[in-house]
Design a protein that fits this description.
The chain is built from 8 helices and 18 strands. It is an alpha/beta fold. It folds into 2 domains: about 180 residues, Formyl transferase, N-terminal domain (Rossmann fold), CATH 3.40.50.170; about 100 residues, Formyl transferase, C-terminal domain (Methionyl-tRNA Fmet Formyltransferase, Chain A, domain 2). The strands form 4 sheets. The protein has a 7-stranded mixed beta sheet. Strands 12, 13, 14, 15, 16, 17 and 18 form a 7-stranded antiparallel beta sheet that branches. The chain has a two-stranded antiparallel sheet with strand order 3-4. The longest helix is centred in the middle third of the chain and has 25 residues. The radius of gyration is 23 Å and the shape is elongated.
Length: about 325
């Protein structure tokens, strides 16, 4: 049985949890590939990826290519002499990279493929009201998230679970699925299943300002799922208009109650302790919210310092 020499590729926190589990299982990680440092924020400070920070802490060899086809990077990658590559939340790889190791390059994706291929699978599973999701390991090919499936692990999505909570659970499930995949590669027991495409496959589109905006004309259930599917990151938002004031606000936590009413959709009603927004089939109750230039606060804190008129609306 040939010992594995692994190169790990990833960038965000989700990937750190997996890399940590690989090291805890005593696998030999000969190199880590992650995103280049970049300037961010008002002070334009250099930000390093979560994976780089962890790899530095563990004394691992780090490569940060801007171009994955760069000859110098390819030469450096070859010199690591890895026989397997593990990819978690990274970029699309060129063929010269994913075909390099003897035992192939596999990816961990946070959905039950072929559904939710793409950039934000955990978010979209909740936004679309799914009751189950999972993780999949698959061998990388020349398209995004289309390769032959190695293992899938399913888990229910709780009705009140937000994307942060599901992210953390899937990171743990995914970490164990990666170990299971590495063991199968080591033991020579790998079996794969080809993905089959169909017209009803759902996509995990990249999140942007537009698709994170709340549409108050949708049903209460859809709005509730959007908000929890974006909490705590990148957070659903809308405009609140009252008299001559207009604010872009982030809405973190809400509850939804079905109720017949005669109010216009998006009307805001407030009492001393409660803020609710009328939707077609009930009310969205705001629990935590953030106004521009303010910290995130619960609704009681907000209403202690802010008053809204009967004309207040959410847009």
């Amino acid at each position: 049985m040939e010992k594995l020499r692994l190169v790990f590729m990833g960038t965000p926190d989700f990937a750190v949890g997996v890399l940590d589990t690989i090291l805890q299982h005593q696998y030999n990680v000969v190199g880590v590939i992650t995103a280049p440092d970049k300037q961010a924020g008002r002070g334009q400070r250099m930000n390093t990826s979560a994976v780089k920070e962890y790899a530095l802490e563990k004394g691992l060899t780090i490569l940060q290519p801007t171009n994955l086809k760069d000859e110098q990077f390819i030469a450096s990658l070859k010199s690591l002499n890895a026989n397997c590559q593990v990819v978690v939340a990274f970029r699309m790889l060129p063929e010269v990279v994913w075909k390099m190791p003897k035992f192939g390059t596999f990816n961990l994706h946070a959905s039950l493929l072929p559904n939710y291929r793409g950039a934000a699978p955990i978010h979209w599973a909740i936004i679309n009201g799914e009751t189950k999701t999972g993780v999949t390991t698959f061998f990388i090919d020349d398209k995004i998230d289309t390769g032959a499936i190695i293992f899938s692990e399913e888990t229910p999505i709780e009705p009140t679970e937000n994307v942060g909570q599901l992210h953390d659970r899937l990171m743990k499930i995914g970490s164990q699925t990666v170990i299971k995949t590495l063991q199968a590669i080591e033991n020579g027991t790998i079996q794969t299943t080809l993905q089959t495409d169909s017209p009803d496959i759902k996509t995990a589109y990249k999140l942007n300002k537009e698709n994170c905006k709340i549409d108050w004309n949708k049903s209460g259930e859809e709005i509730y799922n959007l908000i929890r599917g974006l909490n705590p990151f990148p957070v659903a938002w809308c405009q609140i208009v009252d008299d001559n004031n207009e604010w872009n606000v982030k809405i973190y936590e809400v509850s939804f109650e079905k109720e017949n009413h005669s109010l216009l959709t998006s009307t805001i009603q407030c009492s001393k302790k409660e803020m609710k927004i009328a939707v077609s089939n009930g009310f969205i109750y705001i629990q935590s919210i953030q106004f521009p230039g303010k910290k995130k606060m619960n609704v009681q804190e907000l209403l202690n310092g802010m008053k809204f008129s009967a004309l207040a609306k959410a847009l």
